[in-house]
Amino acid sequence: MRLLAIDTAADLCAACVWDTEAGERGRCVLELGKGHAERLVAVIDEALAKAGSTYADLGAIVVAVGPGSFTGVRVGVAAARGLALALGVPAVGVTTLEALARQAREESPGHPVLARIEAGRGQAYVAAFSAAGELTFGPAALALAAADELVRDRRDTVLAAGKTADIAIYARCGAEKLAAGAPPPKPLYLRDADAKPQEGFALPRKALP
Questions:
Q1: pTM of this prediction?
Q2: 193 near 70, Cβ under 8 Å?
Q3: How many CB atoms lie within 10 A of CB 99?
Q4: How distant is the alpha carbon of residue 40 from its chain centre?
């Protein structure tokens, strides 16, 4: 089966066509920062072209569901759901933390992993995984001091820090989740959005006549 993995949860706008038997077939990765919604379709099209595939060849959609950029996560999940509905195929979500941990386990097998993403506002998103990949803590948004203490308390643990993982990691994680019958994707938000309406500029509501 060929699946499409997409990641817009951080600065990258990435897509990968993955064959569950032959591995990666094609990819496109752009360093954007912003503007994922405007570029995602073109990125997907390029990944499909490099793979010699069309949308009709896809058997599933995998998407990064955060934590990460609120806007980026919404763009990716909405695109994945829309594609899955249009193509009549399943979709599944992979968190950025589990993808980072999976990448670290492949580079340093046999060790538990603590995945960490700097979240701003004096916080970090963290999740801990066993050497076998089982979730043992989190995911959670912690104060930096608490996140640092968590690292110190796990001496044999590999630290996986960054914003996101390689797009092929999402594809492999997603393929396993699909085989296990994972539910459809939904965004993983560990705190409220940074941007909030300015109440001082809101117009007062009027009672209905």
A1: 0.90
A2: yes
A3: 29
A4: 14
